[in-house]
User: Fold these one by one.
Assistant:
Number 1:
Amino acid sequence: MSNIRGKVVAITGASSGIGEAAARLLAERGAKVVLGARRTERLETIVRELRARDREAVHQRLDVTARGDVESFVRFACQSFGRVDVLINNAGIMPLSPLEQRHVDEWDRMIDVNIKGVLYGIAAALPRMKEQGGGHFINVSSIAAHRVVHTAAVYSATKFAVNAISEGLRQEGGETIRVTVISPGPTTSELPNTISDPATKAFVEQYRKAILPAEAIARAIAFAVEQPADVDVNEIIVRPTAQG
Ligand code: NDP
């Protein structure tokens, strides 16, 4: 039997891209999925489509920069399905630009969503997972946590932070908490829409010539989820084959 069937999986940033693909794949494989993001009309559509296929799915509006929202999202997962087995901290933004342009508001937003959003997720779900005897955090990082490229200093910094937080959580998690970092290369999604600087947008389009479908990352996530409870997949890096 699949280790995915029956698991309660809460996913932040499930309204598009990787989060949406993960929600759809895990639901197809029998997970009970809980979708969170700000664009609730998108979530509604995905949940309706999944339910029409007899999959178990619910959604709640979520802004990961608001700690109360994240607490309420995890509570909602537990109220809906009785527990939370997996929290996928996936919500993220990538408004890249050179440091000298001083887009300080965008730096703040990246820190709030990409770092604090993950920390709020851990704060909300860790006590419940401990109480219920185990759980699994899947934190979506990036190859940007391995290599800094032009215009990506702050974005990379947030993803380096996600890796550090994940490793700390793994060490503190004891025998029952699993922690997986997923590090995608360029993947089809709406992420580049968060770039406001036109020159950076053009540079990134060039860089993202070889690109993965979001389903490829969803399959990597499913691989980590489906391992037996005593197997903790710590990191998966997925790049397009054509990326040098
Ligand atoms: P998308 O832009 O398609 O998805 C991002 C998701 O995050 C959306 O569902 C969005 O929903 C959500 N989100 C953004 N801000 C918030 C917020 N404040 N509160 C709650 N949800 C929020 O991009 P991806 O699917 O690519 O991004 C998913 C993750 O993958 C990110 O962490 C990203 O850094 C990472 N990643 C992506 C790569 C790529 O090439 N695509 C490569 C490496 C890593 P909404 O706007 O409705 O709130």
Number 2:
Amino acid sequence: MWPYPRIVAHRGGGKLAPENTLAGFRTGLARGFRAVEFDVMLARDGVPVVMHDPFLGRTVNGRGNVYDYDAAELTRMDAGSWFGADFTQETVPLYTEVVAFCKANGIWMNVELKPAPGYEAETGRVVGELTRALFGPEIAQDDVRLLPLFSSFQPAALETAREAAPDIPHGLLLKETIPDWETLARSLGAAAIHHNHVTLDPATAAAIKQAGFGLFCYTVNEPQRARELLAWGVDGFCTDRLDLIGPDFA
Ligand code: G3P
Ligand code: MG
């Protein structure tokens, strides 16, 4: 049900490096992480980039929306200065660059489809098609551990990703438990539920497991809470605190 690593570095390097940058991915790797979560959305020209916010200003120097710029423009923008003077060379990475880095270093990927509003279906389709092309040899090996896992809060993105890349598994992200979570997850063909740990309770955790889904939590930054969730049967979680919760955390 969860054949992947249990502890996953959130947005590349968690809070130890600028999020969703190659410096972040290198930081996670240096800390021994072999599993990472990151966010993907489309630039104006339809090229997927690794970015959390649909707007510039918080982590990337600039103004406006991500979809106001082509990918080539975004990949020249400063995505590290907000974090610290050591990271002024960091830029917005392309999805393909991050996949190449992770594949080269044996890092498993939880690819969160993070569409800008109105681009849900297109984002799932484009990222699905590209991922299917990038992972053709791995798909042929029929070992799900070699493949990324898509996740999204947006069912429309998961639907089109599934159509475009039926072999790539996906998880439904939930900020809180919704009454029809099981029906929705089944209709999407989801392999897992990715639940906000703050709104999860032990009975719901048990029900999700009982229903046969993997159960992943975000974003768990306190070791004591992490132990509690694992005791509830949570299969894995992502963390920002790579310094407190290492890849072999138990
Ligand atoms: O995928 C888990 C987590 O990343 C979801 O929330 O806002 O950090 O992307 P967010
Ligand atoms: Mg995310």
